[in-house]
Amino acid sequence: MAFGTGRHETTALCASLMEEAGCSGRKVLDVGCGSGILSIAAALLGSREVLAVDIDDEAVRTAQENADKNGCSDRIKIIRGDMVKGIDFRADIVVANLIAEMIADLSASVRNNMETGGIFVSSGILLEKKDMVVRALGGSGFTVVKIKEKGEWCSVAAV
């Protein structure tokens, strides 16, 4: 089954930062959507449009089932893809609950998928790798505006 029940610290941290960013009426891109939990959260928080992307066929299928079960299919489009490669979609909020190394790699290109004034919310970052992610974000022109920690994990919001 695809990752993402909503009970893991990284998911909770990410959802919290998404809520603080204000999803209502905004477009959200969920990179590495897994089970679709963060896409569903975005829709339930009032996002007008959500694009969910995952490289794994099982994740795409599961995310679609979960969106259907939660009555969010009208606002969530789920596609198979490799992070943001070839994705022609610009979002107000980009969310990625991956691993630190993938977030660092994604930081170099994700701005192309962000509206002016958008926010990049990332999670799945072990505390021991937080500084590496913060450096990668800074090197890609982002400014970190908030870091939340829970257990051995953290989530980072950057503009």
Tell me the total number of β-strands: 7
The fold-level CATH name is Rossmann fold
From N to C, what is the helix and strand string?
A: HEHEHEEHEHEE
CATH-level-2 architecture = 3-Layer(aba) Sandwich
**What's the main sheet like?**
7 strands, mixed
**Can you tell me the number of structural domains?**
1
CATH superfamily: Vaccinia Virus protein VP39
Shape estimate: globular
Report mean pLDDT, rounded to a whole number.
95
Whole-Å distance between the termini? 32 Å
Number of helices: 5
**What class would the helix/strand composition place it in?**
alpha/beta
Radius of gyration: 14 Å
Beta-strand percent range = 25-35%
Extract low-pLDDT stretches: none
Give me the secondary-structure topology.
Blueprint: H1 9-21, E1 27-31, H2 37-44, E2 49-54, H3 57-69, E3 76-80, E4 91-97, H4 100-107, E5 114-126, H5 130-139, E6 144-150, E7 153-158
Helix pairs in contact: 1-2, 4-5
Verbal overview:
The protein has helices spanning 9-21, 37-44, 57-69, 100-107, 130-139, and strands at residues 27-31, 49-54, 76-80, 91-97, 114-126, 144-150, 153-158. The chain is built from five helices and seven strands; from the N terminus they run αβαβαββαβαββ. A seven-stranded mixed sheet has the order 3-2-1-4-5-7-6, sandwiched between helices. The chain has one domain: Rossmann fold. The protein is of the alpha/beta class and 159 residues long. It is globular, with a radius of gyration of 14 Å. The N and C termini lie far apart (32 Å). Helix 1 runs parallel beside helix 2 (37-44) and helix 4 runs parallel beside helix 5. Strand 2 (49-54), helix 3 (57-69) and strand 3 (76-80) form a beta-alpha-beta unit.
